[in-house]
Amino acid sequence: MEENNQSTPETIEKTVESPASTPPVLPEGTEAPLDKRILAAFIDMLVAIGISWAAGMINGRLGYPAAVGYLLTRDSLPFLEGQSLGKKVVNLQAVNEGGKSLSGDWTPGIIRNIPMIIPFFPLIELIILVINKDKPNGMRRLGDQFAKTKVITVNH
């Protein structure tokens, strides 16, 4: 008896993965979700620690200023196209309220990041994001409000 190995619509349908099994891709320009923002911030802190260590190996006095310099300017660095390394990894970008990249736009980039270098203030920023996450413009932390910026998703 010969076995029939031909695919029928029923067998094809059974082998195709359900769309629910893949994570949704957010449209470009959508406000960044909290989990991606936290992951990007964590990666940026690891980068700052690495910069501090490397600069400290060159000269012990350079470590802390180098890390703070990265943390303040990370969203405005032209060679990163206006994304911090953490944001680049998770496909996020800080932009002004009109949607323009902060690449080379140092003032809002630094203003939005000043609260992140003040001890314990990042925790306050996180609490604000968690409390406001379901409100319009709720994913804007105080630094974003001061600098008139937002964090959006990008697909590159």
Q: What this model shows, in words?
A:
With 156 residues, this protein is mainly α. It has one domain (25-153). Helix content is 47%, strand content 6%. The chain contains seven helices and two strands, in the order ααααβαααβ. The chain has helices spanning 9-15, 34-58, 63-73, 85-89, 106-113, 121-132, 142-147; strands at residues 92-96, 149-153. The chain has a two-stranded antiparallel ribbon with strand order 1-2. Helix 2 (34-58) runs antiparallel to helix 3. The longest helix is centred in the first third of the chain and has 25 residues, at 34-58. The termini are far apart. Mean pLDDT is 86; it is low at 9-20.
> Distance between termini?
53 Å
What is the domain tally? 1
The helix fraction, in percent, is 40-55%
Count of distinct strands: 2
The outline comes out as globular
Strands of the biggest beta sheet: in what spatial order? 1-2
Q: Indicate the proportion of strand residues.
A: 5-15%
Following the backbone from N to C, one meets helices and strands in this order, namely HHHHEHHHE
Mean pLDDT over all positions: 86
Q: SS-based structural class?
A: mainly alpha
Largest sheet composition:
2 strands, antiparallel
Low-confidence stretches: 9-20
Gyration radius from CA atoms, angstroms: 21 Å
Output the number of helix runs: 7
Which descriptors would you attach to this protein?
single chain, 156 residues, mainly alpha, two-stranded antiparallel ribbon, 7 helices, 47% helix, RDD family protein, transmembrane, RDD, membrane, transmembrane helix
